[in-house]
Amino acid sequence: MARLTPGQLRVTVTTAGTRVQITSSHIVTTNIIIQALSGNTGTVYVGNSSVSSSLCMVALAAGAAITLTPGAMGNDMGGLDLSEFYIDASQNSQSVNVGYTTMTPGLA
């Protein structure tokens, strides 16, 4: 039997206009929650390796969040790989919290 194990990351864009990979580790999950920190002063852009202020999946103002699931991404049968997601920002030193769950073999 498998159980869900929560995970979290904090990712920071040090230099605006320079995209940052959420993680280089291949972490496959059934949901991702990305929340811009409430103390941010700019906008954070979420997308793939080409993300920018003019091309993104979503733009998050301070405190805003998005939940991504395979179904919402058109993939009802699979998972989402965190390493395929990137962020960029309109100002320096903008951060997001990233939450996710993974399946861990073992007792429920």
Explain what this protein looks like in three dimensions.
The protein has a single domain, classed as Jelly Rolls. The protein has no helices and ten strands. The strands form three sheets. Strands 1-10-4-7 form a four-stranded antiparallel sheet, with no helix packed on it. A four-stranded antiparallel sheet has the order 2-9-5-6, with no helix packed on it.
CATH class: Mainly Beta
Number of strands: 10
Low-confidence stretches: none
SSE string, helices as H and strands as E: EEEEEEEEEE
Mean pLDDT figure: 92
How would a textbook summarize the main sheet?
Answer: 4 strands, antiparallel
The number of distinct structural domains comes to 1
> What is the annotated CATH architecture?
Sandwich
What percent of residues are in strands? over 45%
Class derived from helix and strand content: mainly beta
Brief overview:
The chain has 108 residues and is mainly β.
